[in-house]
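Let's practice the habit of predicting before peeking. Look at the sequence and jot down your guess about where helices and strands might fall. Then scroll down.
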Amino acid sequence: MKRLILMRHAKSSWDHPGMSDHERPLNARGIRSAKALGAWLKERNFIPDQTLSSSSTRTRETFATLGLRGDVRWLDRLYHAAPEDMLRALMQATGHTVLMLGHNPGIAEFAQDVVETAPDHPRFDDYPTGATLVAEFDIDDWSLLEMGTGRTLAFVVPRELIDE
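Done guessing? Here is the structure:
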């Protein structure tokens, strides 16, 4: 059995007009959201032993603010990745529980495609910042992953965890 935590980065800042998209940091709301998401993951014992993340500043800061540890791989190819690129990266994972941190629209599409049945949640389709899906797969190795086979265990958005 393998478990995937699929998280969109927390809310980022637009306060620096000349800054590249890749370098945009989290804003104050994003930091609060990431802290709340980290607590939510820990409370439910959804603890990754490996993280595959976009190399952007906002995904790095999201991970750091979650307060998690483990093997982290910062992958340029996950920056605004398409679902097929995310699948290829995940199929090379070695962890039992893998956290993938990425960006829309690819992460929303990947979330919809990887599970057998989407969670009954009004925000699942648009996958807002900080949206987090936890799914389980009946496989022993990530290289055996097939789309549409994940069983949804949980889905949450930061607004459910904190007052914004």
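How did you do? Strands lie at 2-8, 50-54, 71-75, 97-102, 132-137, 151-156.
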